[in-house]
Design goal:
The chain contains 11 helices and 5 strands. The chain is mainly alpha-helical. It has 2 domains: 234 residues; 56 residues, no CATH class. Strands 1-4-5-2-3 form a 5-stranded mixed β-sheet. Helix 6 runs parallel beside helix 11, helix 7 packs antiparallel against helix 9 and helix 10 packs antiparallel against helix 11. The longest helix has 40 residues. The chain is elongated, with a radius of gyration of 25 Å.
Length: 318
């Protein structure tokens, strides 16, 4: 308790040597310090934030469609439920992340301080636990699905893709897309002479595409677990701010670590751009912007709370 009081006193004294905005900007470079200038344009900040939130909902709908189309092309009609759920792991992941953004928005911006005196904090935390469980499950699904790209069986007796034409078979051409193999299009689909089936899938993939899928799978795994680290750091930062530890070394370290992991996510976004997965790149940057909206809430929360502390400190000195 004494350590917390000392930290609080340092925060008050630090912010009393100039405006709160200027003091926050003098801190080490993090995502928060980059976003603080937006606080001087609150209407613009809110329009940007809710535009990003709306785009995330639209993005969620797109992924449901993509997962459904992949399910229809890749799995047999009698596929077990576990394989179907795994095929929809991206949509499940998106739903959990949307829920998490909504819950953070409530806690860091939408709800007034008075709302946190009753049952609401427990409800928010319980709902976030459910989201984290779903996100963990989705990360596990990404891991399993990516590692399945190494569990392959050669398609025996096939050295030309046209040998599978007009049999209802599909060729996976990249991470997202499948093409039905017909006598009309088979000569344009693949020049390879080796073809494989991945795990329990009924679709086939050529050797060059398989290597691409395996490499992109590692990017998916990396992205999934880096996001988990980022959101846990946000969770920790919310707790630090809720306990008025604004000038603590732990808060500064948390923000710097979070900024590093955001950079890793940005790199993944550029990898998807480089490999022409425009939807994945759009999704990556959209989610980064979505959580930067939460970061903006945290910066505004800190600014408002420090103003309250300064006012209380000045009142006690009079």
């Amino acid at each position: 308790m004494l350590a917390a009081d000392m930290t609080l006193r340092r925060a008050i004294l630090t912010e009393s040597n100039g405006s709160t905005d200027q003091a926050l900007l003098r801190r080490p470079l993090t995502i928060e310090t980059l976003l603080i200038p937006l606080l001087t344009r609150p209407r613009i900040a809110q329009v940007i934030k809710y535009t990003v939130y709306f785009s995330l909902v639209v993005n969620f709908g797109l992924y449901i469609v993509y997962d459904y189309l992949a399910y229809r092309s890749a799995l047999p009609a009698n596929a077990p439920l576990t394989d179907i759920v795994q095929q929809f792991s991206t949509s499940i992941d998106m739903a959990a992340w949307l829920g998490l953004v909504f819950l953070f928005e409530l806690e860091t911006y939408a709800l007034p301080d008075e709302a946190f005196d009753g049952w609401i904090p427990k409800a928010l935390h319980s709902a976030r636990v459910i989201c984290y469980i779903s996100i963990g499950f989705a990360a596990y699904g990404y891991t399993v699905e990516s590692l399945e790209n190494f569990d392959v069986a050669a398609v025996a007796g096939v050295s030309n893709i046209c040998e599978l034409a007009d049999q209802g078979a599909h060729l996976q051409t990249d991470v997202i897309n499948y093409q039905e193999i017909t006598s009309e299009n088979c000569s344009d689909l693949s020049p390879d002479s080796e073809f494989y089936r991945i795990a329990n899938e009924v679709s086939v993939v050529d050797a060059s595409t398989l290597k691409h899928l395996q490499w992109m799978g590692w990017i998916d795994i990396d992205n999934a677990y880096v996001w988990i680290i980022v959101v846990l750091l946000i969770e920790f930062e919310v707790w630090l701010q809720a306990t008025d530890r604004f000038s603590s070394r732990m808060l500064t370290t948390t923000r710097q670590a979070k900024t590093f992991f955001y950079l890793a996510l940005i790199v993944n976004g550029f990898i998807w751009m480089w490999t022409h997965y425009w939807l994945y790149a759009w999704d990556a940057f959209l989610w980064i912007f979505g959580f930067w909206a939460i970061e903006l809430n945290l910066a505004e929360w800190e600014q408002d709370r420090l103003e309250e502390l300064r006012a209380a400190h000045a009142a006690r000195r009079r």
